[in-house]
Design a protein that fits this description.
Among the domains are: 195 residues, Jelly Rolls (Sandwich); 162 residues, Galactose-binding domain-like (Jelly Rolls), CATH 2.60.120.260. It has four helices and 23 strands.
Length: 530
Amino acid sequence: MREKGVPAPRRAQQLVWVASSIGVALMLIISLPVLATPPLDPSVSQQLDGPHPSSISHTFTGSEVADTYLDRDAPSQNFHDANKLSIDQVGRIRPLYYVDLSSVIEPPVIVESAVLTLHILEPYGNKATIRACAHEVLRDWVVGEATWDFASASLDWYEDGCNSTSPPEYADRMAGWVDCRYFDAAALQNGVGIVQFNLTTLVQKWANEPERNHGLILLGNASSRVTWRVASAEHYIPSWKPYLEVTWVPGGPTPTATASATVTSTPSPTLTPTPTLTPSASPTPTLTTSPSPTPTETGVPSPTPTDTATPTPTPTETAGPSPTPTTPTPAPLHLPLICRQYCPPTIVVWNGGFEDGVFGCWEHGGDLAQRVTGRLHNGDYPTSGSFCAQLGEPVECEEHPAASTWMYYTVYVPNSASGPPPTVSFRYRIFTNDILDWSSFRVEIRDQSNVTLEQILRDGYDPPDRVNICYNDLGWRSSMHDLSPYKGMAIRLWFDTRNEFTGGLGTWTYVDDVLFASETSRDLCAVTRP
C-alpha cells in the first residue's frame, strides 16, 4: 500500500464528439438493353446461384506455432525453449503466441471459424480459478528474443511487458480482449485440461492482411495469488502442444445474382424490333398478323420461305402497315438498403439490463476497454439477468496513464405535469486499486452537444487515511436520481470510468439494470417491446 497526496488540478480536456447519423439509402438503376429475354438457361442459374466454394480446414501446429512468455521478475530472460509457459493472476507473467498463416492461407478468404486450443496443467500453489484473456499484439517481436524489457534484441516494448495500449501509434497491444476463458481446476483430468479461445474475428484480419499478424498475448486475473502452467510448443507430448484450427472459404464473398456478361451473352435477336426479311419479289415488306411460322425460342426466324416479314414478338409490338422501332425500356435493379442502426431519443431505456448481449443503442468508446459481458473478471455473475456492461479492464496495481472509457444512452424526458417525477436508477460495482481522488466512476446528465449539465454521481474508494487497497471490490451499489429539471429535453445518460491522472493505479466498473422511469415510460413498459 502507499499513501497518496492530493493531485494537482486537472488540465481541461476538450471532448470531440462526432454525432451518429442514419445510413443513406441508395438505388442504382442499371439499363439493360433487353426488351424481351427468353428464360435463362439452367446453366446460367447455376452460375449465379451455385453452391459456395468448398470450405478448407487446416490445423496449425508444430513449427507453425511459436510461443514464449514474459516474466516481470526475470525481465531479461527469454523462455521460448521452455516446455511449459506460465500465467499468473495479475499479469506479471504473460504468454505470447504467434501462428504463421501465410504459408497456408492465401487471401482473400472468409474465415468461418478459428479456435486456439491450449492444454493447461496443474497450477503452482493453490488451485484458484484464473480468467485468461487474449489480446491482439500490435508490435513486432521475435520469439527467441522477446523478454519483459524487449520485443526483440533491437526493439523495445513501448511499455515493459508488452503493456502499452495507447496512443495507437505507440501501442504494444490492444486494450480490449478478443476472448476470455477460465483456467479451472475442475476441468483437469489427471493433471491436464483443455481451454479453447475463439479467435475467428482476429484470424479473419490476419488472413486477409498478413502484415498485421503480430500474434496475441494472454493476461490473467484472479482474486487470489496463483500461477497456472500451459503446455508450450516445445512440450515433449505432441498432442499437448498448442494448435490453431482454422476453417475458411477461399476467394472472398460468394457472388450474388447481378446483371453480368453471363446473362447478356445469351443469344437474343430481340434487341431491336426491326423485322427480319426473307427474299421476296415485293420490294417493300408488308407486316401482317396472319398465321406465320412460329419463331424458335431464341428468336431465330423459321427457315421456311415466306412473302411476309415476321418480326420477333415483343410486349410492345402491334400490327400495322409498317413496323415502328421502340426504344428499349431500362430495367431498374434495386439494391438492398444498408444503413446504420438508427437510435432516436426514446422514453424508455431499451436494453438497460444489457440482456441483448451487445450494447445496441448504447453509444460507447474511450481509451480503455468497454464491453457487454456475462461474467465479471472474478467469475461472479451480473447482479441480475445474464449480462452487464463493463467499463475498463482489470489492471495491475501499478501506475498507469490517465485514461477513461464511457457509454451513454439518449432519452427524452416527457414534459408531463402529472404523476411521479421522472427518474433514472442503476446498479454498479467498482473494482479499484486506488483512492477516489485518482480513480473514479461517474454518472452525468449531458445535452445533445455532449455538454455536462449535471454530475449526479462520482464514486470510488474514499478512505479517511487516503491509503489505497489493491484489487479492492466495493460491491454492488444502487443509485436513483430525479430528472425533473430536464422535462421536455432529450438528454444523454452518461457513465464513465477513469484514471484521473497519470500515475493512477487503475479502476474498472460493471453497470447493470439502468432504468429510466416517467409516467409515460411506465405505461410503455407494460407493453411488449417493439
